[in-house]
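Limitations

Structures in this collection are predictions, not experimental determinations, and the ligand pose is part of the prediction. Treat each record accordingly. The example that follows, with phosphoenolpyruvate as the small molecule, is included so readers can see exactly what is and is not provided: the inputs are given verbatim, and the output is the predicted complex.
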Amino acid sequence: MRTKIVAGNWKMNKNLQETKELLAELSAKLPDTDADVIVAPTFVNLQAAKTALQDSTIQVAAQNMHFAENGAYTGEISADMLLSLGVDVVILGHSERRSYFGEDDALLAKKVKTAIEKDMKIIFCFGEELEDRKSGNHFALVESQLKNALFDLEANAWNKIVLAYEPVWAIGTGETASPEQAQEMHAFIRKTIADAYNSSIAEGVSILYGGSVKPANAAEIFSKPDVDGGLIGGASLVATDFTDIIKAI
Ligand code: PEP
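Predicted complex:
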């Protein structure tokens, strides 16, 4: 049985006070669930989040990290810095990191390697742009993103990987992939992993859908057999919306 996950990517939102308020509201409203619930506040509020959630089942993730152990990388954050705060989950490969900060598959492969060496859990994001979908190139593109960043991993690294399929055209746009489009791609991803590794790894990996998931559409998306939860952007910033999405899983 795969782990169900609802993760909230807060992006560059919420100052310290707002972070504490949202976490307090979230903790108070958190429904009973079998799913893992994860929030990813901005780096500077990770420590406050860990403190606020010390008695909670809600996990804390970072939105990014550098591949290097340490050194002259001004403005960057290392795995050890995260681990020293008790943060052992990291989102890598988000489309905003890819498009605004030039993160490509080769760089992401290095980050993935470091995170695995550090025994961190990775939420690995990938997905096609609108042109790829319009031209029918979306399956090939997704396959290449997975292959280039993940398929050099040893089989036993896969128990640390969570995949988040996020079609770029559906992120923050209000446009959602239909539940059928999400299922079709998630099934393709699972088959691609089965071909590259084996069916037990493919069947064991949780694949989240991300892209304008809201309380109104979450249940239908989550009802699909290969969709194991969601990576939520905008709706994770509102406690009632995020908890309603958790209830939908
Ligand atoms: C995201 O950025 O990962 C995301 C899914 O955003 P939104 O839910 O706002 O589309």
